[in-house]
Amino acid sequence: MVNKKKVDEQTRRNNQVVATNRKARHNYAILETFEAGVALVGTEVKALRDGTASLADAFATVDDGEIWLRNLHIPEYHHGSWTNHAPRRNRKLLLHRGEIDNLIGKIRDGNLTLVPLSLYFTDGKVKVELALARGKQAHDKRQDMARRDAEREVTRELGRRVKGMR
């Protein structure tokens, strides 16, 4: 029983979210999500273990049949030396060939883009949740905000009724 608790704590620590892109779900309609590995150097992994990264301006592109993550900001590792990495370098995403071909076909068919949603550790490896997305227009964003407000109000009212306040 004691060993199980240690394993649960270890798993929870290893599956930690480093960064999320909160604006992505506001600016894009998410159609499909993928999990991809990220090719990193040592100091980048150490900086991510400190919990510092930003997906704010990040996006993915397809170049020569490979998928690259651009504008992901991982600050320099503070204990690093001359081996430190460039904070905004392009990083290769690791996907199976079938997944890459599928994504390339979908991107070329419509006006879709690849947007990173979150960056996290899974069993000691850095993964990125990548979304195939379509950009939202301003009126779509307003409709989504109105719908969320209405749903929030409905749940509040139901909570009040259950508690007997009204």
Description:
Residues 137-166 are annotated as: Disordered. Pfam families: SmpB. This is SsrA-binding protein. This protein has 166 residues and is α+β, with helices and mostly antiparallel strands. A hairpin with a 2-residue loop joins strand 6 (113-122) and strand 7 (125-135). It has two domains: 2-135, Small protein B (Small Protein B, Chain: A); 137-166. The chain has five helices and seven strands; from the N terminus they run αβαβαβββαββα. It is globular, with a radius of gyration of 20 Å. The longest helix has 26 residues, at 138-163.
Short description:
It holds the Pfam family SmpB. This protein is of the alpha+beta class. The chain has helices at about 1-15, 25, 40-50, 95-110, 140-165, and strands at about 15-20, 30-40, 60-65, 65-70, 90-95, 115-120, 125-135.
Nearest-integer average pLDDT: 80
How does the helix and strand content classify structurally?
alpha+beta
| SSE order, one letter for each helix or strand | HEHEHEEEHEEH
Q: Please give the oligomerization state of what you see.
A: single chain
CATH topology category name of the largest domain: Small Protein B, Chain: A
Sum up the overall morphology in one term: globular
**Under the CATH scheme, which architecture of the largest domain would be assigned?**
Beta Barrel
Strand order of the largest sheet: 1-6-7-2-5-4-3
Strand content: 25-35%
Distance between the termini: 47 Å
- What share of the residues lie within helices? 25-40%
CATH class of the largest domain: Mainly Beta
Q: What is the domain total for the residues?
A: 2
Cα gyration radius (Å): 20 Å
The tally of strands reads 7
Subcellular location: Cytoplasm
InterPro entries: SmpB, SsrA-bd_prot, SsrA-bd_prot_CS
Region (Disordered): 137-166
GO cellular component, one term: cytosol
